[in-house]
């Protein structure tokens, strides 16, 4: 007779064990790295995602002692870490662009949204979507992208960003309205053109 299979330990148990056996934390990476990498690649492009994935899990490893063990799934916590790492990446990138602009005023500086794409209408819309997302307040953008790209629930976004669910709802509402308003002229042009 075979013994019944035991369910794998939840993330909280693994993180708790990793406090005395740090190598245990590798299981958290194995479980969640593909999801976090996909999110990072969508936020900063594939060329930066690997580095930021490493930064995200290094930060999570350093902060594992603060993990709330009442949360069995660590993915929202990791999305929160990744969101903070992305924010720092964007601040660092903006600082580099400012320095380049001062040091090399004749050279154009290209950002991640300046990549060429095949169709001119798609390029126009992509640029407008990028501009609309860039125009959002950082907190509003983080909520919108975690829900739209990562399909997190309001509760999971609240846990990831350590904010109340009501704040998630208001930020999402505000972000959706601003993006809709910013893209309305492009859709009117397409339907009349």
From TrEMBL:
A single GO molecular function term of this UniProt record: DNA binding
GO terms, biological process: DNA-templated transcription initiation
Alphabetical list of CDD domains matching this protein: Sigma70_r4
Keyword Transcription carried by entry: yes
Sorted UniProt keywords: Sigma factor, Transcription, Transcription regulation
Family matches, as SUPFAM superfamilies: Sigma2 domain of RNA polymerase sigma factors (SSF88946), Sigma3 and sigma4 domains of RNA polymerase sigma factors (SSF88659)
InterPro entries per the UniProt record, alphabetical: RNA_pol_sigma-70-like, RNA_pol_sigma-70_dom, RNA_pol_sigma70_r2, RNA_pol_sigma70_r4_t2, RNA_pol_sigma_r2, RNA_pol_sigma_r3/r4-like, WH-like_DNA-bd_sf
Keyword Lipoprotein carried by entry: no
Domain of life of the native organism: Bacteria
Residue stretches making up the RNA polymerase sigma factor 70 region 4 type domain: 128-178
Domain RNA polymerase sigma-70 region: 29-96
NCBIfam families per UniProt: sigma70-ECF (TIGR02937)
Similarity comment: family membership: Belongs to the sigma-70 factor family. ECF subfamily.
The protein's name in its UniProt record: RNA polymerase sigma-70 factor (ECF subfamily)
Source lineage: Bacteria, Bacillati, Actinomycetota, Actinomycetes, Pseudonocardiales
């Amino acid at each position: 007779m075979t013994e019944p299979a035991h369910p794998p330990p939840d993330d909280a148990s693994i993180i708790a064990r990793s406090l005395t056996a740090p190598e245990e934390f590798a299981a958290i990476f194995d479980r969640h790295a593909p999801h976090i990498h996909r999110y990072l690649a969508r936020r900063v492009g594939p060329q930066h995602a690997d580095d930021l994935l490493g930064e995200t899990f290094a930060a999570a490893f350093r902060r594992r002692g603060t993990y709330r063990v009442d949360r069995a799934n660590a993915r929202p916590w990791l999305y929160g870490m990744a969101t903070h790492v992305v924010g720092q990446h964007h601040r660092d990138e903006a600082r580099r662009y400012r320095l380049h602009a001062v040091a090399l005023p004749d050279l154009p500086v290209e950002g991640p949204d300046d990549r060429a794409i095949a169709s001119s209408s798609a390029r126009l819309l992509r640029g407008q979507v990028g501009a609309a997302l860039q125009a959002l307040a950082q907190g509003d953008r983080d909520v919108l992208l975690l829900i739209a790209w990562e399909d997190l629930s309001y509760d999971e976004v609240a846990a990831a960003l350590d904010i109340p669910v009501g704040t998630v709802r208001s930020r999402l509402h505000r972000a959706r309205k601003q993006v809709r308003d910013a893209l309305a002229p492009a859709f009117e042009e397409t339907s009349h053109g």
